[in-house]
Amino acid sequence: MQPTMNTWVEKFAFGMAIFFMILLPILWVFIPMSLSLLLEGRMDREQIGMIVGLTALLFAFGSAVFFPLMCIACSIWIESSHFRALTKAEHELSDMILSDLKTLPPNWHPNGAVLICENVVIANDYFKALLWFFRKIVGGRSRSFERLIERGRREVTVRVLRKAKECGANVVWNVRYETAIVQANNKEKSMAGVEIIAYGTAFSITGE
């Protein structure tokens, strides 16, 4: 099992995001439609007023309060769940050796060397984007994006170790990381997420 989470929380948050993205345009169409029915005399003013009032209240509450708070709560929950899963996976793989060194110890005798390459893309959320916006105004350390990149590096490292273990190796040597920013709509200053690639040579060793 990969530590990347696909829990009911992620599915719920993703589903609600799609729901609101579909609901808001429908509301924009529904209100003028109700007004047109009023002008045609098919509904009286009290009925139209009640419908429009409830629709406006639902629209305002959903777009201004419920939806942002739900997204923030889900993003925090998803991030913390991912870190817990990564900690568990790293503990399970603690018997594997990983190093960024190029030269092997002289008493090692590697067997069955194979190149391992894995990648991961971690999406940014609007809560982090908002924090990033205010951080750019005053400057300083952006801890929210540090955690985003940390999640990516730890996730891709776990994937590399798992793949190496599947190949029968117990060492991953000369590990390298490449990081790329995934931009939104080709905007240079926007950040939709990060992609991190890790690769190294996996082998089993004999000797001490």
Structure, described:
With 208 residues, this protein is an alpha+beta fold. It has two domains: 8-89; 93-206, Translation Initiation Factor IF3. It is built from four helices and four strands, in the order H-H-E-E-H-H-E-E. Helix 2 (45-92) crosses helix 4.
Sequence-ordered SSE layout with sheet pairings:
Elements: H1 8-40, H2 45-92, E1 97-98, E2 109-123, H3 126-138, H4 143-166, E3 171-182, E4 193-206
Parallel strand pairs: 1-3
Antiparallel strand pairs: 2-4, 3-4
Helix pairs in contact: 1-2, 2-4
Categorize the overall geometry.
elongated
Main sheet properties? 4 strands, mixed
Number of individual domains? 2
Portion of residues in beta strands equals 15-25%
Oligomeric category: single chain
- Ranges with pLDDT <50 over ≥5 residues? 1-5
Strand order of the largest sheet: 1-3-4-2
At the first level of CATH, the class of the largest domain is Alpha Beta
CATH topology of the largest domain: Translation Initiation Factor IF3
